[in-house]
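Q: I have 231 residues here and want to know how they pack in 3D. Can you give me a structure?
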Amino acid sequence: MSDKKRGMFLTCEGVDGSGKTTNVQWLAEYLRAGGKEVYVTREPGGTPLGEKLREILFTNEMDPETEALLMFASRRDHVERVIKPLLEKGIWVISDRFTDSSFGLQGFGGGANILGLNDLEKFVHPNFEPDLTILFDLPVEVARERNAGTAKKDRFELMDLEYHKRVRQGFLYRKDQSGDRVQLINADQTVEMIRHDIVNIMDNFDERLNGDHHGYQQLLALVADPEYNER
């Protein structure tokens, strides 16, 4: 039996336009610079089945309960086929969205029953949750301005302002319910400041795991490198 340490499961959440997806890639590079083997994935998606369900979810009108059921079906396949096996191999997994998004989008945004989502969460991935979630939070008005130039938008991005405000409240609700698992970053600031906040969160997370720092100053210098921040 291998004595290799289990990998850590990290998720990034936030409203569309929060910079979440860009920072997922940056976080992966940051962790790799610290010697971690990292796999980046997304939801909905992450498996052949999940990607097919993603296309269905993004291009077909449906009620929020149907959305939630499809999302959790995709998630079950994702967790069992990809996430858990990689973690067991010692690989760190970063997912662009996970279950918190179902509470934000389908629950608070769409109006799906929150208790029903709680039950789905327990059924689909019992006793399994991210080790750390970074929530990129900002006013939805700012997020929509950032997304204004996006050529092709999915049907969630095209929802009205009030929908996105409710989605944001759903993420904040999950933060309040999740203790230290969810760490909030003010995404309405410069890229450099956001990435310094990411470094601080990861450094504190590493301290909780290992009781010490792992090259924090070296990695902080890397974050400050303009060429690195342009990636």
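Q: Anything worth noting?
A: The chain has ten helices and five strands. The chain has a mean pLDDT of 91.
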